[in-house]
Structures are given as C-alpha cells and as structure tokens.
C-alpha cells in the first residue's frame, strides 16, 4: 500500500498510517460538497436553455476539480470559435465513470446520501441537452450572419454618403470657384472696378514713371529720338 492523498483535507498519509475520516474531514467535506453541488446546480439550469457565446480564451478556458474522479475537467465545450457554457461539466457528470466514482467517493467519505444524486446527470438529460445545443448554435449562427449583414449595409450606406458629398462638392463648389476666378479676371481688366488690384496696378505704373525720371533722359533719348522721328515722319 502506497501513500494516500485526501483532496478534502489536502493531506498526504504515508504507508503504515490511516487517514482519519473524522470530524475535521467531515466538516471540510460539507463545505467542499456544498460548493460542488452549487456548481452542478448552476450548470443544470442551462440543460433546457444552453448558453452559447463567442469563444473568449480569457473567460471560457475554466476548469473544475471533480472530487469524485480526482480529475480536472474543462467547464465549457468549445471549438475555438464558439463556446457552450457548462457543456464540459454536464457531459462529464453524465459519464458512467463519474457515476461509478461518485458512488465510491460517497461510500468512502460517509457523505450525505441526499446530496449524491445532485452531482450525477442522467444520460437522457444530456441527450436532450445536445439537441438544445444544436438549436442554440443554429440560432447563434443566424444572429451572427444577421449582424455581419447589418455591418455590411452600414458600411455601404457610409460609402454612398461619402460619394454623394464628393459629387455635390464637384457639382456646386467647383463651378463656384471657377466663377470667382472669372470675376477676378474681369475686375482686373475693368477700369471702373474700384478694386485693390487696380490701385496696386496704378501704384506700380507710378513707380515705373518715377524710375524712368530717375534713370535720366540719357538712357531714353535714343528711344525718344527714334519715336520723335517716327512721329515726325507720320
Ligand atoms: Zn480527509
Ligand atoms: Zn467525475
């Protein structure tokens, strides 16, 4: 006979000694079983209405310790895309091995017999659960498809609006810009237009006249002479 580990007391008993299933063990067992039964009860609530969610590795990778089998079991069932909450727990509680181990555990620990059947799930119940899971998965996929369709419609509507805004800018604003350019050009050539540009132009011509007087008559003389000659000839 080797060592014995009591998961309830978290104590190892070595060869030659017997683990005492006394008062301490029983009070710890009550606490452990209440938590264990509560967990199974929570999972049982989803038997008729399974909960299907989009898989999230931070939430759906939970495990639970089955005291009866001494095994760590995945709480949920997932394909990496979707997760069926409590699916793993319900499936485990319905296996013949778990049923056999539960009976053994209850007898060894002298646990309350009223609680025993609360941690065993009948095979028929899991069969019905699987049918409900298939329906829940189908409706989940339909909802997902509908959501994707809505998002695609929204993107199309946004793109259409963007195109319309761009089109109206081209149709309204661009001709207006052209009109303003034309107006500015016509003001430049219109002598009656009291614009800044005209004032600038007259100031510029004054400067030129002033410069010509400063440069002196010498530089202009040949040109004036030539012009005078031409005028004379005319
Ligand atoms: Zn113990
Ligand atoms: Zn088990």
Automatic annotation (TrEMBL):
Lineage of source species: Eukaryota, Metazoa, Chordata, Craniata, Vertebrata
Under InterPro entries, the record lists: CCDC84-like
Protein's name according to its UniProt entry: Centrosomal AT-AC splicing factor
Pfam families linked: CCDC84
